[in-house]
Protein backbone atom coordinates (compact mmCIF):
# COMPACT_ATOMS: atom_id res chain seq x y z
CA UNK A 1 0.00 0.00 0.00
CA UNK A 2 1.28 3.42 -0.96
CA UNK A 3 1.52 5.84 1.99
CA UNK A 4 1.44 9.50 0.94
CA UNK A 5 2.88 12.20 3.22
CA UNK A 6 2.07 15.84 2.49
CA UNK A 7 3.93 18.90 3.72
CA UNK A 8 3.52 21.40 5.13
CA UNK A 9 0.39 20.77 7.16
CA UNK A 10 -0.66 24.38 6.88
CA UNK A 11 0.60 27.13 4.59
CA UNK A 12 -0.27 30.80 5.11
CA UNK A 13 0.47 33.15 2.23
CA UNK A 14 -0.68 36.45 0.77
CA UNK A 15 -2.51 37.13 -2.49
CA UNK A 16 -0.15 37.24 -5.45
CA UNK A 17 2.42 34.92 -3.85
CA UNK A 18 3.27 31.40 -4.96
CA UNK A 19 2.40 28.25 -3.01
CA UNK A 20 4.47 25.08 -3.16
CA UNK A 21 2.86 21.91 -1.76
CA UNK A 22 4.74 18.66 -1.43
CA UNK A 23 3.62 15.03 -1.58
CA UNK A 24 6.02 12.18 -0.87
CA UNK A 25 5.15 8.54 -1.46
CA UNK A 26 6.45 5.57 0.51
CA UNK A 27 7.68 4.11 -2.80
CA UNK A 28 7.88 5.13 -6.42
CA UNK A 29 4.37 5.65 -7.82
CA UNK A 30 3.91 3.51 -10.88
CA UNK A 31 3.52 5.48 -14.12
CA UNK A 32 3.36 8.69 -12.04
CA UNK A 33 -0.31 8.01 -11.37
CA UNK A 34 -0.54 10.89 -8.92
CA UNK A 35 -3.42 13.35 -8.71
CA UNK A 36 -4.19 16.51 -6.75
CA UNK A 37 -7.62 17.55 -5.45
CA UNK A 38 -8.88 20.80 -3.96
CA UNK A 39 -11.46 20.67 -1.19
CA UNK A 40 -13.53 23.60 0.03
CA UNK A 41 -16.17 23.50 2.81
CA UNK A 42 -19.58 22.40 1.57
CA UNK A 43 -18.32 21.56 -1.91
CA UNK A 44 -17.29 18.34 -3.61
CA UNK A 45 -13.54 17.86 -3.95
CA UNK A 46 -12.33 19.08 -7.34
CA UNK A 47 -9.77 17.25 -9.46
CA UNK A 48 -6.96 19.65 -10.33
CA UNK A 49 -4.05 17.57 -11.65
CA UNK A 50 -3.65 13.98 -12.81
CA UNK A 51 -0.72 12.01 -14.16
CA UNK A 52 1.43 14.23 -11.91
CA UNK A 53 1.33 17.17 -14.33
CA UNK A 54 -1.79 17.20 -16.52
CA UNK A 55 -4.39 19.80 -15.65
CA UNK A 56 -8.01 18.69 -15.51
CA UNK A 57 -10.58 20.45 -17.68
CA UNK A 58 -11.26 24.03 -16.63
CA UNK A 59 -8.37 24.31 -14.19
CA UNK A 60 -6.48 27.61 -14.54
CA UNK A 61 -2.87 27.46 -15.63
CA UNK A 62 -1.90 29.02 -12.28
CA UNK A 63 -2.09 25.43 -11.02
CA UNK A 64 0.75 23.18 -12.08
CA UNK A 65 1.97 19.77 -11.02
CA UNK A 66 5.45 18.33 -11.25
CA UNK A 67 7.56 15.48 -10.00
CA UNK A 68 8.07 11.81 -10.60
CA UNK A 69 8.93 8.63 -8.78
CA UNK A 70 8.11 9.27 -5.14
CA UNK A 71 8.29 13.08 -4.94
CA UNK A 72 5.61 15.35 -6.31
CA UNK A 73 4.77 19.04 -6.08
CA UNK A 74 1.69 21.16 -6.65
CA UNK A 75 2.50 24.79 -7.39
CA UNK A 76 -0.11 27.53 -7.33
CA UNK A 77 1.13 30.83 -8.70
CA UNK A 78 -0.38 34.30 -8.32
CA UNK A 79 -2.49 33.22 -5.35
CA UNK A 80 -6.06 34.47 -5.10
CA UNK A 81 -8.28 34.50 -2.00
CA UNK A 82 -10.47 31.81 -3.60
CA UNK A 83 -7.52 29.40 -3.52
CA UNK A 84 -8.00 28.99 0.23
CA UNK A 85 -8.75 25.29 0.62
CA UNK A 86 -7.35 21.93 1.65
CA UNK A 87 -5.31 20.20 -1.03
CA UNK A 88 -4.89 16.43 -1.19
CA UNK A 89 -2.61 14.28 -3.26
CA UNK A 90 -3.82 10.83 -4.29
CA UNK A 91 -2.20 7.84 -5.93
CA UNK A 92 -4.28 5.82 -8.34
CA UNK A 93 -1.60 3.36 -9.43
CA UNK A 94 -3.08 0.48 -7.47
CA UNK A 95 -5.66 -0.57 -4.95
CA UNK A 96 -6.10 0.52 -2.25
CA UNK A 97 -6.32 4.03 -3.64
CA UNK A 98 -4.75 6.29 -1.02
CA UNK A 99 -4.70 9.99 -0.21
CA UNK A 100 -2.25 12.16 1.64
CA UNK A 101 -3.42 13.78 4.86
CA UNK A 102 -3.88 17.16 3.19
CA UNK A 103 -2.29 20.62 3.23
CA UNK A 104 -4.41 23.55 4.38
CA UNK A 105 -3.69 26.69 2.35
CA UNK A 106 -4.72 29.97 3.93
CA UNK A 107 -4.66 33.15 1.90
CA UNK A 108 -4.54 36.18 4.14
CA UNK B 1 -22.37 18.15 -17.09
CA UNK B 2 -21.68 15.35 -14.62
CA UNK B 3 -24.10 15.40 -11.71
CA UNK B 4 -24.02 13.03 -8.78
CA UNK B 5 -26.62 13.33 -6.02
CA UNK B 6 -25.90 11.38 -2.86
CA UNK B 7 -28.63 10.56 -0.36
CA UNK B 8 -29.45 8.29 2.56
CA UNK B 9 -27.24 9.78 5.22
CA UNK B 10 -28.35 10.94 8.64
CA UNK B 11 -27.93 10.40 12.34
CA UNK B 12 -27.77 6.73 13.36
CA UNK B 13 -26.86 4.72 16.42
CA UNK B 14 -23.75 2.55 16.73
CA UNK B 15 -24.25 -1.01 15.60
CA UNK B 16 -26.91 -0.20 13.02
CA UNK B 17 -26.72 -0.34 9.22
CA UNK B 18 -27.17 2.28 6.53
CA UNK B 19 -27.77 2.27 2.80
CA UNK B 20 -26.50 5.22 0.80
CA UNK B 21 -27.55 6.01 -2.77
CA UNK B 22 -26.11 8.06 -5.59
CA UNK B 23 -28.17 9.21 -8.58
CA UNK B 24 -26.07 9.95 -11.64
CA UNK B 25 -26.85 12.09 -14.67
CA UNK B 26 -25.04 13.97 -17.41
CA UNK B 27 -23.05 10.99 -18.68
CA UNK B 28 -23.55 7.41 -19.86
CA UNK B 29 -23.57 5.73 -16.46
CA UNK B 30 -23.00 2.19 -17.71
CA UNK B 31 -19.72 3.17 -19.36
CA UNK B 32 -17.94 4.15 -16.14
CA UNK B 33 -16.70 2.48 -13.01
CA UNK B 34 -17.84 4.21 -9.84
CA UNK B 35 -16.42 4.80 -6.37
CA UNK B 36 -17.37 5.71 -2.83
CA UNK B 37 -15.10 8.04 -0.86
CA UNK B 38 -15.63 9.53 2.57
CA UNK B 39 -14.30 12.64 4.25
CA UNK B 40 -14.02 13.25 7.98
CA UNK B 41 -12.25 16.04 9.84
CA UNK B 42 -9.90 13.69 11.63
CA UNK B 43 -9.04 11.38 8.73
CA UNK B 44 -9.33 13.50 5.59
CA UNK B 45 -10.32 11.78 2.36
CA UNK B 46 -10.59 7.99 2.48
CA UNK B 47 -11.34 5.76 -0.49
CA UNK B 48 -13.77 3.02 0.40
CA UNK B 49 -14.86 0.97 -2.58
CA UNK B 50 -15.20 0.75 -6.34
CA UNK B 51 -17.40 -1.15 -8.77
CA UNK B 52 -16.78 -1.77 -12.45
CA UNK B 53 -19.00 -0.37 -15.18
CA UNK B 54 -20.79 -3.70 -15.57
CA UNK B 55 -21.01 -4.36 -11.83
CA UNK B 56 -19.05 -7.60 -12.06
CA UNK B 57 -15.89 -6.40 -10.30
CA UNK B 58 -15.93 -4.93 -6.82
CA UNK B 59 -12.98 -3.86 -4.71
CA UNK B 60 -12.84 -2.19 -1.33
CA UNK B 61 -10.50 -0.98 1.37
CA UNK B 62 -9.44 -3.64 3.84
CA UNK B 63 -10.54 -1.45 6.77
CA UNK B 64 -14.23 -1.69 5.76
CA UNK B 65 -14.37 -4.68 3.42
CA UNK B 66 -16.21 -7.00 5.82
CA UNK B 67 -18.96 -4.44 6.53
CA UNK B 68 -19.54 -2.99 3.10
CA UNK B 69 -21.56 -3.86 -0.01
CA UNK B 70 -21.33 -1.77 -3.18
CA UNK B 71 -23.82 -2.22 -5.99
CA UNK B 72 -25.22 -0.44 -9.03
CA UNK B 73 -28.27 -0.42 -11.28
CA UNK B 74 -27.29 0.69 -14.76
CA UNK B 75 -30.91 0.76 -15.91
CA UNK B 76 -31.65 3.42 -13.30
CA UNK B 77 -28.30 5.21 -13.21
CA UNK B 78 -27.86 4.59 -9.51
CA UNK B 79 -25.03 3.50 -7.24
CA UNK B 80 -25.51 2.16 -3.71
CA UNK B 81 -23.42 1.48 -0.63
CA UNK B 82 -24.56 -0.56 2.34
CA UNK B 83 -22.53 -0.37 5.55
CA UNK B 84 -23.22 -2.57 8.55
CA UNK B 85 -22.12 -2.45 12.20
CA UNK B 86 -21.61 1.31 12.14
CA UNK B 87 -19.31 2.90 14.71
CA UNK B 88 -18.43 6.48 15.62
CA UNK B 89 -15.40 6.12 13.34
CA UNK B 90 -17.79 5.92 10.37
CA UNK B 91 -18.97 9.49 10.98
CA UNK B 92 -18.14 11.33 7.76
CA UNK B 93 -19.48 12.90 4.60
CA UNK B 94 -19.87 10.18 1.97
CA UNK B 95 -19.29 10.98 -1.69
CA UNK B 96 -19.80 8.95 -4.80
CA UNK B 97 -17.35 9.58 -7.61
CA UNK B 98 -17.22 8.79 -11.32
CA UNK B 99 -14.29 7.09 -12.97
CA UNK B 100 -12.29 9.58 -14.98
CA UNK B 101 -11.85 7.27 -17.94
CA UNK B 102 -14.59 5.35 -19.70
CA UNK B 103 -13.45 1.86 -18.77
CA UNK B 104 -14.03 -1.21 -16.59
CA UNK B 105 -12.69 0.57 -13.50
CA UNK B 106 -10.67 3.77 -13.61
CA UNK B 107 -8.75 4.29 -10.38
CA UNK B 108 -8.67 8.01 -11.16
CA UNK B 109 -12.02 9.59 -10.45
CA UNK B 110 -13.84 12.87 -10.19
CA UNK B 111 -16.50 14.05 -7.81
CA UNK B 112 -19.78 15.62 -8.83
CA UNK B 113 -21.96 16.01 -5.77
CA UNK B 114 -22.02 17.54 -2.32
CA UNK B 115 -22.04 14.25 -0.45
CA UNK B 116 -24.36 12.91 2.22
CA UNK B 117 -23.41 13.27 5.89
CA UNK B 118 -23.50 10.32 8.25
CA UNK B 119 -23.33 10.88 12.00
CA UNK B 120 -22.95 7.83 14.21
CA UNK B 121 -23.72 8.63 17.81
CA UNK B 122 -25.54 7.16 20.77
Quaternary state of the chains = heterodimer
**Poorly predicted segments of chain B:** none
Strand content of chain B: over 45%
Order of helices and strands of chain A: EEEEEEEEEEE
Biggest sheet statistics of chain A: 7 strands, mixed
Structural class of chain A: mainly beta
Largest interface, with counts of residues having CB < 8 Å to the other chain, equals:
A-B, 26 and 24 residues
What is the tally of helical segments of chain A?
0
Instruction: Give the integer mean of the pLDDT values of chain A.
Output: 96
Q: SSE order of chain B, as H and E?
A: EEEEEEEEEEE
Task: Give the biggest beta sheet of chain B.
Answer: 7 strands, mixed
- Shape category of chain A: globular
So how many helices of chain B?
0
Q: What structural class is derived from the secondary structure elements of chain B?
A: mainly beta
Strand % of chain A is over 45%
Poorly predicted runs of 5 or more residues of chain A = none
Q: Brief description of this entry?
A:
The complex is a heterodimer of chains A (108) and B (122). Helices cover 0% and strands 50% of the residues of chain A. By secondary structure, chain A is mainly β.
Could you outline the blueprint of secondary structure elements for this entry?
The complex is a heterodimer of chains A (108) and B (122).
Chain A: E1 4-7, E2 10-13, E3 19-25, E4 34-39, E5 46-50, E6 54-55, E7 63-68, E8 71-76, E9 85-91, E10 98-99, E11 103-107
Parallel strand pairs in A: 2-11
Antiparallel strand pairs in A: 1-3, 3-8, 4-5, 4-9, 5-6, 7-8, 9-10, 9-11
Chain B: E1 3-7, E2 10-12, E3 18-25, E4 34-40, E5 44-51, E6 58-60, E7 68-73, E8 78-83, E9 92-99, E10 109-111, E11 116-120
Parallel strand pairs in B: 2-11
Antiparallel strand pairs in B: 1-3, 3-8, 4-5, 4-9, 5-6, 7-8, 9-10, 9-11
Amino acid sequence: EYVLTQSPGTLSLSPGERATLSCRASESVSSNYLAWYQEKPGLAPRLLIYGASSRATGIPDRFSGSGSGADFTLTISRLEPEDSAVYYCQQYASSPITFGQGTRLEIE
Amino acid sequence: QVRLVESGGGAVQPGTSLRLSCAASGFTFGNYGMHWVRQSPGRGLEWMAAISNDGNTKISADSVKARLTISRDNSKGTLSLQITSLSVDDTAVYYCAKGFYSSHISFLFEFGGQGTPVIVSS
